[in-house]
Amino acid sequence: MKLKKNIPLIDQHDKFGFWGGKFGGSYIPETLKKPVDDLTKEFSKLRKNKSFIKKRDFYFNNYIGAPTRFIKLENLSKHLGGAQIWAKVVSDANGGAHKIYNATVHALLCKSMGKKYIVGDTGAGYAGKMLSMAAKKFGLKCKIFMGAKDIKRQKPNCDAMKKNGAEIVPVTTGSQTLVDAVSECMRYWVSNCDTTHMCVGSTVGPNIFVKICGWSTAQISRELKKQIKIQFKKIPKKIKLINCVGGGSSAYGFWSEFIDFPKSQIELIGVEAGGPKNSKLHAAPLSRGAKLGVLHGAASYVCQNNDGQINETESISAGLDYPGVSPIHCFLKDTKRARYTYATDEDALNAYKLVTKFEKLNPSLEPSHAFAEAIRIAPRLNKDTVIIVNSCGDAKKDRDILKKRLGKRI
Amino acid sequence: MIDPIKLAFKNAKEKKRPALLTYTVAGDNTKKKSLQILKSISKYVDICEIGFPHNTPIADGGQIQTSAYRALKNGLKISDVFQIVKDFKKSKNSKPVILMGYYNMIYQYGKNNFINKCKTSGVNGLIVVDLPWPENKGFAKKCKSKAISFVQLLSPTTSKERLKKIIKDSHDMIYYISMLSTTGGKLKVSPKQILNNYSKIKKIDPKKNCVIGFGITEKTIANLRSADGLVVGSAICKEITRSLNNRQNPVTNVSKLVAKLKNKIS
After folding, report:
1. Cβ contacts (< 8 Å) between B158 and chain A: which residues?
2. What residues of chain B lie within 8 A of the CB of A173, using their CB?
């Protein structure tokens, strides 16, 4: 299993859609074959179309607000006394998280395919909020599937979705979280694929959805590469790019431009959700040795039992609370290009406390997992090492959880 | 020896009626009860589809999901599914069995192990909901080498070109999904339109036995009786749920329902 150079990772799959010969694919019911094929054709046509790219860039610049900031966290770096810590503040993007890139591209695709309805899944509510925003912007009718447990814990994002005119469909089966929302969304699409476009909220699902999402979030690293060059004159010798990984969309977007660099120069570190400290449940298939399995139309490492039933997961962060992970991260893991680890709920909360104490930054619980790893390794590294954390979401949505756990008003 | 699935269609045809196929979930609501249900409906049924339940089903509607969760909650394991089939096949009136489910469970068991276990348990056919053509070619071939029929699915969205290719690669039985829906949806197209699509499939290869499924109930079954076979699943799962809610015996209630279904197409 080997990575190729000069080809975007999203395109390094075989004709059946597998990365490294075994991750990804399209395990879908026959009914979805045609809509998935249609979408595949449309996307491969549009991504080569100059006027479509122009349109995308127009909305990225003027609607999403590119570029998002790249800032040094001076106080935090000083406090930890090791490597310099920087943040790519992707939460600057319209709506407050990276999910807006994928949502905007899907809305544009939906429109160009002549469909009027768009549906999507959401965990933390950001994918749903952004899709509802994009739907409103482009005049599409929008339905969002969301686990009943997540609706309760991410209320601010639900309010935003409703305000944007989207219908939220509560999913009450299984663990009532993201995994069930994705299943229900796919079931809805099976029944309505002739009129409706489906947006998968992360780099998961059948091959084409991994590609579209990765293609969209890659904007993050395109911006970052330029910003690094401006800031440091050239790419520094030691960089560590740290990103949280649930489905893996922000991590792929954050890394895509840097995958061809040698590991010794740019290390890629993915941080999964380890769950509560003393719980057996987690959402960390890559770093805690889950087996290869098929979930939601793709093969990836999946938290599951011996029979192949999908395990319940547990994490304080709804956006990372998912038993599977993107096939491209499985590929990056097995080719050893990226390193994956996990942070517990408590680690993430402590990181949140520390970051907000020292910096004018308010990362949501998802990137707080990434900050936890940065805080852990920074003191051991010298000050020539540049740690960059993708602060991919804003903590406004987490206000209820943070208040409960930290007694803090934000 | 003639393939038992083929024989079942032949027998039905001789009686000038479609084959009746039922779908029940193994272990719904207990191992014992699901076996009793199979044994009691067997005398009316031509082929029994048995679902191996998965907790993340992406193509099943509410009724079958409920049945699957119920079975899993009662501790059903894949090894129990094979035991249920084995016990059923030993019984007096047993019928050909087609197992139906999602690929991850087969993958975790090991493809070859799974097919071998099917063989020794007496399974005659397999339907894998999320393993479409052409990805399923290799697996289908393995099934065939063990004389297990791999049933290809066709849907209203399948293009004509694709229909031809799938039918060419299919074994004796093919399964036409009546409409764009998960299992158990309300029939949203007319029986006439369904039969129209059905006849297009039959024209491509008249020798293959084609069954229609999804949305078939006591009300709609008679209108589709010109097909080679008809599958009823969700309506049965619903009856089990109803019986349990009313503290009645699902075995007798399901048996009555299946007898009625049979009556409508005889």
Report:
1. 30, 33-34
2. 65, 69
CB contact residues (below 8 A), chain A span 280-319, against chain B: 291-297, 302, 304, 306-310
Backbone angles phi, psi at B122, to 5 degrees: 95, 20
Q: Whole-angstrom Cα distance, residue B129 to residue A24? A: 17
Determine the distance in angstroms separating the CA of B1 from the nearest CA of chain A, rounded to an integer.
32
Contact B173, B151 (CB under 8 A): yes
What average pLDDT does chain A have? 96
Under a CB-based contact definition with an 8 Å cutoff, are residues B139 and B150 in contact?
Answer: yes
User: CA A206 to CA A17: how far, in whole Å?
Assistant: 8
Query: Nearest Cβ partner of B103 from A27, A33, A34?
Result: A27
Tell me the per-residue pLDDT of A212-239, one tens digit each, with 9 for 90 and over. 999 999 999 999 999 999 999 999 999 9
Pairing of strands B229-232, B209-213: parallel
The domain ranges of chain A are 27-59+99-214, 66-96+220-406
B49 counts as catalytic: yes
CB atoms within 10 A of CB B145: 9
- Would the CB atoms of A187 and B59 count as touching at under 8 Å? yes
Q: Is the pTM of this model over 0.80?
A: yes
Instruction: Look up residue B167 and give its amino acid.
Output: I
Mutate to test the interface with A, among B67, B104, B176 (most CBs of A within 10 A): B104
Amino acid at A209: F
CA dist B263 → A257, B133, B256, B259 (Å): 66, 35, 11, 6
**b/e for B68-83, b at 16 or more Cβ within 10 A?**
bbbbbeeebbbebbbe
Check if the beta carbon of residue A219 is closer than 8 Å to that of residue A249. no
> How many separate domains does chain B show?
1
- Provide the shortest C-alpha distance from residue A41 to chain B (in Å): 15
Annotated active-site residue B60? The verdict is yes
**Cα–Cα dist B24/B250, whole Å:** 12
pLDDT (tens digit, 9 = 90+) per residue, B160-200?
999 999 999 999 999 999 999 999 888 899 999 999 999 99
Contacts of residue A307 in chain B, CB cutoff 8 Å? Answer: 77-78, 105, 108-109
Among candidates B56, B135, B182 on the partner chain, residue whose Cβ is nearest the Cβ of A25 = B135
Phi, psi torsion values for A271, nearest 5 degrees = -120, 115
Q: Residue B196: which domain range?
A: 4-265
Positive or negative torsion for Cα B237, B242, B244, B248: negative
Q: What is the CATH number of domain A27-59+99-214?
A: 3.40.50.1100
Picking from A284, A171, A236, A212, the residue whose alpha carbon sits closest to that of residue A40 is A212
Asked if B158's CB is within 8 angstroms of A34's CB, the reply is yes
Domain A66-96+220-406 is of which CATH architecture? 3-Layer(aba) Sandwich (3.40)
d(C-alpha A241, C-alpha A269), whole Å: 6
Task: Give the pLDDT score at B76.
Answer: 97
With beta carbons under 8 A apart, name residues in chain A contacting B185: 191
The CATH number for B169's domain is 3.20.20.70
As a whole number of angstroms, the distance between CA B162 and CA B167 comes to: 8
Q: What is the pLDDT of residues B59-117, one digit of tens each?
A: 999 999 999 999 999 999 999 999 999 999 999 989 999 999 999 999 999 999 999 99
Contact B158 A193 (CB under 8 A): no
Please count the other Cβ atoms lying within 10 Å of the Cβ belonging to residue A111: 16
